[in-house]
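Supplementary material to the annual report.
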Amino acid sequence: MISVQEEDFNVAELYQALLVANKTGAVAMFVGLVREFSDLAPEDCAFELEHYPGMTEHNLQSIVDDAKSRWALQEVRVVHRVGRLSVNDQIVFVGVSSSHRAEAFQACDFIMDYLKSRAAFWKKETQGDHAQWVEANEKDSASLDRWS
Amino acid sequence: MTKLTVVFFASLKESLAIGQYQVVGDFPMSVKALKQMLASELENGDALLAAGIQSSVDYEFARDTDMISNTAKEVAFFPPVTGG
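Predicted assembly:
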C-alpha cells in the first residue's frame, strides 16, 4: 500500500499492517524525520514538500513492484507526507515484512534509495523569511549503482 | 496535429510563472525538441534549458532523446527530485 498524504502517520499501526499471521519472520522499517537545518530556532524552520499527483504514486508503485520482483516479500507500506512540515515531523515511512531479515533489510534500503532519486517530490526549505528549493544530492543518485 | 498538456514543478514552475501549458504540435517529437520549442515560446523559457532539468512522459521518467508519441497525454519538466 502506498500513500502520499498531508496527515501524519502512526508507525505502530503501519507495523501491525505489515504482519502476516504465522508467516512473518522479519520486519524492517525506516522513518525519515525533519531535522534542524539552520542556526535559527527550530520553530523558524520548515519544509514545504511538493509532489506531482499521479506520477508520484506511479513512481512509488513501480519501486515497490521492483522490490517485490527482487526479494520474497510479504507486505510493503510506503507513506510520504507532502505540504508544510516542521522540525521533528515525520516525513516518510517505508516498511517491509518477509520470512527472513536479509530480504527485509535489503528491500527497505532499496525502496528508500529509489524513493530519493526516482519519485516526484521536491523540498523547499523555509528559514525565517527566506525560502529556497533544496538541491538534489549527487550521493543519492550514485547510491542507486549499488542495486544494478 | 496533437494536443498535449505540459506541466512544470518546483523551482522551474516558479521561474516560468506557470504550472501548465497546452501544446499543439506535430508528434512524434523528441523530449529535447519539445523543450527547445517551449523555451522559445515561454517567457523565461531559458529556465527549461538549465542543466539538470528532468522530464517525464505520461508519468514515466524520460530522457532528452526519448520520443513523445502522438498518443501521449502529459509531459512534465522539473528539477531533480528531492524527496525522502
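Strands of chain B lie at 2-8, 20-25, 29-30, 54-57, 60-62, 67-68, 74-78.
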